[in-house]
Amino acid sequence: MTIARSWLSALLVGATLVLPAAARADEVRVMISGGFSAAYKQLVPQFEQATGHKVSTAYGPSMGTTENAIPVRLARGEPVDVLIMVGEALTGLTEQGKADKASRVDLARSPIGVAVRAGAPKPDISSVDGLRAALLAAKSIAYSDSASGVYVENELFKRLGIQEQMKGKARMIPAEPVAAVVARGDAELGFQQISELLPVAGVEVVGPIPESVQKITIFAAGISTKAVSAKAGADLLAFLASAQAAPVIRKTGLDPIAHPAGK
Description:
With about 260 residues, this protein is an alpha/beta fold. It folds into two domains: about 1-110 and about 220-255, Periplasmic binding protein-like II (D-Maltodextrin-Binding Protein, domain 2), CATH 3.40.190; about 110-215, Periplasmic binding protein-like II (D-Maltodextrin-Binding Protein, domain 2, 3-Layer(aba) Sandwich). About 40% of the residues lie in helices and about 20% in strands. It has twelve helices and eleven strands. It has helices at about 1-10, 20-25, 35-50, 70-75, 85-95, 130-135, 145-160, 165, 180-185, 195, 230-240, 245-250; strands at about 25-30, 55-60, 80-85, 105-110, 110-115, 140-145, 170-175, 190-195, 205-210, 215-225, 255. The strands form two sheets. The protein has a six-stranded mixed β-sheet with strand order 2-1-3-10-4-11. The protein starts with a helix and ends in a 7-residue tail after the last strand. InterPro entries: ModA/WtpA. This is Extracellular solute-binding protein family 1.
């Protein structure tokens, strides 16, 4: 990782390097969950242009049992070089021997936010009392089937003391962005990482939930233990963790995690 990151940093700050296609250009197969996807889609063309590598991508949740969920993809033997997903889920894959622990790099912190349909009134969720009142007043609430939704269902409602009141009107959404459900009017409030709410047309992000009940999700990346293009995959991880990538990551609603040069 250190060698890959140092080489790529030199390339990105203006060094001109001709890449012999047979020697250096590889296909990097990536599996990625939604929270980092908006930044990733903007950054991958820069990486491909700088390195000559080509990136192919499969999208799916970090956890769960839906057809496209990353653990399900791995279980059915889909090929992959790079995994980009919720850090806790990546840790689980490392413990199962499916991701190389030494290759892991944490990329960004992601807060949970709330969205409403575009044009709908925005509730005041700046305080815990305001968030509680908004949830009690809403007729329907949606949350994801990944890390943020698991927290909302199992911890947030309980911490707010409204677990019973949420039964029957709050539901987990599998295999679809929560914001899409809100945009078509099937839920008044939607909870998911802000980076997953922002790209969806037809909704407005109210803001993050209050800090005292917030859960920050870490998005991380690592190399598959079955990677064919491990070196090219390491180059991609180095680029995504670089200072050059940070402004794009920040613009998509994430807080990039700084890494010392050469680390």
